[in-house]
Amino acid sequence: MDLVPAPRGENPVKTPMVEVEAVDVAAPANTETGALQEALEALSDFGTDSDNSDGDDALSDDGDIIQFVRDDQLQDVPGACTREEAVAYRKRLHDIGKAAFVEETLVQETVTAKKLCTAFGIKLPDFLEGAPDEAYHPLLAIAISREFSRRPKLPQYNSIDDAVKLLKEAKNIIVLTGAGISTSLGIPDFRSKDTGLYSKLAHLGLSDPQEVFDIHVFREDPSIFFSIAKDILPTEKKFSPTHGFIKLLQDQGKLLTNYTQNIDNIEANAGVLAENMVQCHGSFATATCVKCDFKVAGDAIFNDIKEGKIPECSACRQRIDEDALKPQGLKRKRSSNGNQKDRKDDESSDEDDYDIPTPGVMKPDITFFGEDLPDEFGSRLVGHDRQLADLVIVIGTSLKVAPVAEVPGVLPRDVPQIYISRTPVSHTDFDIDLLGDCDVVVSELCRRAGWNLQHPMIPPDEQVKISPVEGYESRHVFTVVGA
């Protein structure tokens, strides 16, 4: 999954929240070979298509889907690069640059474009089967541009000991979190294939389950959102061990900022201070009337949400009730231009021409697709944290929603980055991947660091097995012994 590039001249983190769908296909200013120029010119033939449920990147060419997949998903493809070849080609690209790389491979015909596509994670599309090798040039150009723009992995960080050392020595840690840190509390994430929230929304009749969080859909029919809101609403003042880990970093003076994509406000339950946290997508902590901007604490509308009702604005209701006591106050004449006139201006009008006032809907202050993120997100990240951060830990997120997904790429490339989640991502090269349940991973890291992470969900005698992933020196899987 790659990042949706911001329009030229715009701050890449000052864009509305969107699902990440496409790769950056911008051509470089310099091209030294005809083959590269030809390939890059072909990029204009490709558009974007929506992200698929398995988390692979996708492009579209006149309805044909082109996917980017993980290395291990290409190992059984006939003629594909081996993992070792793929790593070598990627390293070579970063070492010598795009033009020289194409000269050395395509122009000198040391490898076919078709095979080279697999080195960069392209799943060879069926519609090109049997086509001449030149037909793969557009795909290869996309893949080369995509790979070259990626932050390269820092080779000196690979082991569990490296991760623990980074944790202990860091003084300004950015923690970027997603829904995966709350699933152990019974709050579903969004994209898990069978258990995620999006997998359970077929009954709503949406063309795309993400529409439940689309601001335009909400304005047209808020009942769609409120029919599922109760499923993601935190019901108790509890928090997971991973939330406790973030609080522990804060207590040790190491937490620079927790950028959370979660809207459940559970970080506050754990004691993470507001000044150390940016709620990138807002939260249920407050709600605002869409008509009059009246704001209330989130728990004022929780009962309605739990019952699947649309919460109404009490301030609007009070004004309506007060107007109803006034002469001719309840109903107002509709004019053709949308303005309202008093009933007495036209006594002959039909009853249907009158508008009965209704209260506004109380919208939780979460950021929907199509809405801008809080100004604090971009200003703090770019104007403050980018200069201070000495470690980045990404936990429980597949990094599929821009602009938050762009955070790892915005930071200096020499700042180490650790990824903690159940499955790896293919579009960002983290220095160390720690795979497994977030709670298990962070509790084991704390044990090895000599830190006392206490939480009732962590068994006192818990033993964790750490297994390497074949072919990946820096990728490790955490499992609880006996689980």
TrEMBL record:
Zn(2+) binds at C289, C292, C313, C316. Residues 249-276 form a coiled coil. InterPro entries: DHS-like_NAD/FAD-binding_dom, NAD-dep_sirtuin_deacylases, Sirtuin, Sirtuin_cat_small_dom_sf, Ssirtuin_cat_dom. Residues 153-452 form the Deacetylase sirtuin-type domain. Pfam families: SIR2 (PF02146). The keyword Nucleus does not apply. Keywords: Coiled coil, Metal-binding, NAD, Transferase, Zinc. SUPFAM superfamilies: DHS-like NAD/FAD-binding domain. Its cofactor is Zn(2+). Residues 327-361 are annotated as: Disordered. GO terms for molecular function: histone H4K16 deacetylase activity, NAD-dependent; metal ion binding; NAD+ binding. GO terms for cellular component: nucleus. The active site is at H281. Belongs to the sirtuin family. Class I subfamily. This is Deacetylase sirtuin-type domain-containing protein. It comes from Penicillium angulare.
